[in-house]
Design brief:
With 209 residues, this protein is α+β, with helices and mostly antiparallel strands. 43% of the residues lie in helices and 15% in strands. It starts with a helix and ends in a 10-residue tail after the last helix.
């Protein structure tokens, strides 16, 4: 094993197992692109790393529960893509609503929005669709309340005003998410302001109208 390969595995090992996906770009400070690519290729052939998508790698794990290799951590793969390509990515409305427990609907394809190009990729056998979105949507990327805003946009004014939905989010969301929601309320659609007020009603910050 080359020196670069050793250094790659040392860097990978500082991350929690299964919670980090890497790309060759993460190791370019260790050598030339060609040398890094060759080292990663050898690590993948030896089984030390697992290729989970084009230019995406993680440390293979075995799931005792599933009795088979554990699937890739999709959020970690998405973070690696964003890091590699210099773009912002966040779940689309349906995926966000599902993750928040607001709908049982499961999309046939996992979808994200991005300020990069629209494209469809295969990640560990799953079809993942990335749809370009404009600044009004992507300004929430990276904020704690981004999934909430995406879910509200997908639900729309009538469904999102359902008392059960508002109460559920009020109970389940941590304080820092509620704070972010109201602190950045100026970036919400007008119809979402009273919903934000209801979701974060136990916060000291007021929602501006």
């Amino acid at each position: 094993m080359t020196g670069i390969a050793d250094k790659i595995m040392q860097r990978v090992s500082i991350h929690d197992s299964g919670c980090w996906v890497c790309t060759p770009r993460d190791f370019l400070d260790l050598g030339s692109r060609q040398a890094v690519d060759q080292a990663i290729s050898r690590l993948a052939k030896s089984g030390r790393l697992r290729r989970v998508g084009h230019g995406l790698y993680d440390v293979p794990r075995f799931s005792d529960v599933l009795n088979r290799p554990a699937p890739v951590h999709l959020d970690a793969a998405i973070a690696a893509l964003a890091r590699r390509d210099g773009v912002r990515i966040m779940p689309d409305g349906l995926l966000a609503a599902n993750q928040l427990g607001l709908t049982d609907a499961v999309p046939a394809k996992v979808r994200y929005v991005t300020d990069g190009h629209s494209r469809t990729l295969k990640i560990a056998g799953r079809t993942v669709r990335f749809q370009h979105a404009g600044p009004r949507v992507m300004q929430w990327a990276g904020r704690p309340a981004a999934p909430v805003v995406q879910a509200l946009r997908w639900l729309g004014p009538r469904a999102a005003a359902d008392r059960e939905i508002v109460s559920s989010l009020n109970r389940s969301l941590p304080d820092h998410v509620k704070f972010d929601l109201v602190h950045n309320s100026r970036d919400l659609p007008g119809w979402a302001l009273p919903l934000a007020r209801g979701i974060a009603r136990d916060q000291a910050v007021s929602v501006s109208v």
